Amino acid sequence: METTVYDAKGDEKGKIELPFFFDVKVSSALLHEITTAYLNNQRTGTHKTKTRGEVSFSGAKPWKQKGTGNARAGQKNSPLWRKGGIIFGPQPRDYYTKMSKQKKRLSLSMAFSAQLQNGNIIVVDSIKVSEVKTKKVAELIKNLKVENKKVVFAIPDDADFKKAARNIKNVVIENIKNINAYQVLWADKLIITPEAVNLIKERQSAAV
Question: Which distant-in-sequence residues (6+ apart) come within 8 Å of 54 by Cβ?
Fold first, then answer.
C-alpha cells in the first residue's frame, strides 16, 4: 500500500510504502471497546455524595410524633428533606478497565487503517522547526491545509516541536511509540513521518 509523501511546504515529494498494519479489516466493535476503556481509565473516580449517616445534622426529633399536623419525622438528615442525605448517590470507585496487549495493538492497526481509508493520514518527510516558535508550526499546519481541524502529530520524540506547538488549539503532539487508538481516531488529520512509520513497525508486528 502506497501513499503520498509531502514536504513542509505541502508539495508532493514522492511515495512511501506503508506497512501491513495500515491495511487491516476494521472492527467498529473493538474500536468502541478500546475507546470506552481508554476514557474510563482517564476517570479519577473521586466523586462522592453524603449518605444520611454522614450528613451533619442533630439527631433530635424535629417535632413530636402526633398532634402537630405535620408528617411524621424522625431526623433532619432524611433524604426527603432539603440538605438531607443522598439516596444511592455516587461513591468513590475505580473505573480502570483492563485491555490486553493484543487488543491494544490490533485496535491501533484498525485505527490507522480507518483513518487511511478516510484520507485523514498525511505523511510529511520532516517536521523539524528551525526555531522554537509557534508561528513555525502554524506555518506547517497552513501549508498542509489542516487549519481549524483536530490534528495529531504522531512523530518521534521532539521536545522543540512539542514546545512550539503547545499553544495551538486542537493540536496534539504525541510520541509515535506511545500513540494509542483513541488518539488516532480523535484526530481529523493524523500527521506522521517516514521515520515514525519505521519506529512503530516493531510494536505492531504482532497485531495481526
Answer: 85
> What is the C-alpha to C-alpha distance for residues 102 and 207, in angstroms, rounded to an integer?
6
Mean pLDDT of 96-110: 93
Residue 122's beta-bridge partner residues?
Answer: 191
> Taking the complete model, does pTM exceed 0.85, yes or no?
no
The residues that bridge with 153 in the sheet, in sequence order, are: 173, 191
Span 155-177, pLDDT tens digits:
998 899 999 999 999 999 999 99
Closest CA to 198 of 178, 177, 180, 172: 177
CB 118, CB 22: distance < 8 Å: no
- Assigned C-alpha cell, 59: 439527631
How far apart (Å, rounded) are the C-alpha atoms in residues 174 and 179?
6
- Residue 112's pLDDT band (boundaries 50, 70, 90)? very high
Distance CA 106, CA 21 (A): 8
Buried b (16+ CB within 10 A) or exposed e, 179-201: bbbbbbbbbebbbbbeebbebbe
Per-residue pLDDT tens digits for 17-37: 999 889 999 999 999 999 999
- For residue 202, pLDDT beyond 90: no
Dihedral of the alpha carbons of 99, 103, 105, 107, in degrees to the nearest 10: -110
Place of cell 496534539: 172
Q: Determine contact, residues 132/160, Cβ cutoff 8 Å.
A: yes
